[in-house]
Amino acid sequence: MDKIKIGLIVNPISGFGGPLGLKGSDSDDIWDHVTDVYNLPSLKRTYDTLNNIDSKIADKIYFYTGSELLGEYLLKQFGFKFKIVYTSKTQRTTRSDTYKLLNEFKNQNVDLIVFAGGDGTSSDLIKIIDTDIPVVGIPVGVKMYSSIFPLSPIYSSKIISEFCTYKDIEFILREVSDLDDRKINKGITSTKFIGYLNTPLNLDDNYLQESKGSSISDEGNEIDNLIEDFNDRYTNLNSYIFGPGSTTNTILKSIDIDGTLLG
C-alpha cells in the first residue's frame, strides 16, 4: 500500500512574541528572548496535533520534515515514519529556512503539507506553494485573521485523519490575510488580503475559523455599550486584565490608559 506523503513544517518562534508584549514574532531579535527552545508554544501545539491523529491510520503516513525544531524533534516522540529533507544550520530558524523546506516538499511531491504557524507563515506558503498542494494549518499565532486555520490543534488532527482515511475528500480555498504593518505603525489595526491556500474540506463544517475583520466601525454601538458597562463596574480597588486588540484598546482609552493592539 502506498504511503500518504505529508510534509510537516513548524515555525518554532510563531506565537512566542505576543505574550511577551513584543507585538508579534517577526522582530529580528525575537530569538534573544527565548530561554527554552523546547518549550515554545508552536512545539506544544504541534505535539497536540500529532498526538491526536487517529492511531488507525498512523501506519499509512510517511512524513517529510526539517531538522530539529522544524519538525524532527516532534516526530521523534511518536511512532510515525519520517525523512529529514532539509537541515537548518541553526535552531534559530528564519523565513529562509521555511522557503527551503517548502521547496523540498515540492520536490518530494507530498500529498499534504501540515504547518504550524500564524498569518505570516501562511503568507510564506502562498509564495512557494500557492494552491498546488493542499495544506492543514496548526493555529499557533497570537491573533490570526486568516480563515485557513482550524479552531484548535485538535481540529487540525481531525482534518489530517480524515484526509488520510477517505479517498474522495474534497478541497476548499480559504483566505489568507495579515496585518497591514503600515497602518499598525499609525495605531490602526487593518488587515490586507494575501491570497488563498487549498485545504481539505472536513466532514463537519465547523472545524475552520472564519476570516476575522479588523475594524470596529460597524460595531460602534456595541463598543459604546461595552465601555458604558465597564465604566459602571470600574473601581481603582480592583485589578483588571486586558488582552491586546482594537476593542480592548478602545475601552482602556475611555479610562485614559494606553492599551496595545498586538501585545
TrEMBL record:
This is DAGKc domain-containing protein. Pfam families: NAD_kinase. One of its GO terms (molecular function) is NAD+ kinase activity. InterPro entries: AcoX-like, ATP-NAD_kinase_N, NAD/diacylglycerol_kinase_sf, NADK. One of its GO terms (biological process) is NADP+ biosynthetic process. Coiled coil: none annotated.
